[in-house]
Design a protein that fits this description.
The protein has 117 residues and is mainly alpha-helical. The chain has one domain: Chromosomal Replication Initiator Protein Dnaa, Chain: A, CATH 1.10.1750.10. Helices cover 65% and strands 3% of the residues. It is built from six helices and two strands. It has a two-stranded parallel ribbon with strand order 1-2. The longest helix has 18 residues.
Length: 117
């Protein structure tokens, strides 16, 4: 099995941005899009609250919620963004290259159970 890297590092490399910029207020499109993908993956696959994700990235919960919503919308209308999102998805689900913060080994099983409730 290959060594896993953090979601932040993987997405930053994919989007060709410095990983440290994800934790700043930088609003360049590439950085903001990378941050949105990180927000979405962490929220969807760990179930961590937006407030906690925001604290991790030095942003508030409303920024996290807006980023998650923007990620969903961009996946619908922006082909290049969707392709990058799908690369992250494949790296996480198929290739098992990515590890997420706040993940206690309870990936999709609990997430899927929550969806059925």
């Amino acid at each position: 099995m290959r060594e896993q890297v953090s979601i932040e590092k993987y997405v930053a490399d994919l989007m060709d941005v410095d990983v440290s910029l994800l934790f700043t207020d930088c609003r360049f499109r590439k950085v903001a899009d990378a941050r949105k993908i990180c927000f979405k993956f962490i929220r969807d696959y760990t179930g961590v609250l937006p407030k906690t994700i925001g604290e991790y990235f030095n942003h508030d919960r409303t920024t996290v919620n807006a980023g998650i919503k923007a990620c969903d919308n961009l996946c619908l209308v922006d082909k290049k963004f969707r392709e990058k999102y799908n690369k992250v998805y494949e790296a996480y689900h198929i290739e098992n290259k990515i590890c997420l913060p706040f993940d206690n080994g309870r990936m999709e099983e609990e997430y899927l159970i929550d969806l059925q409730s």
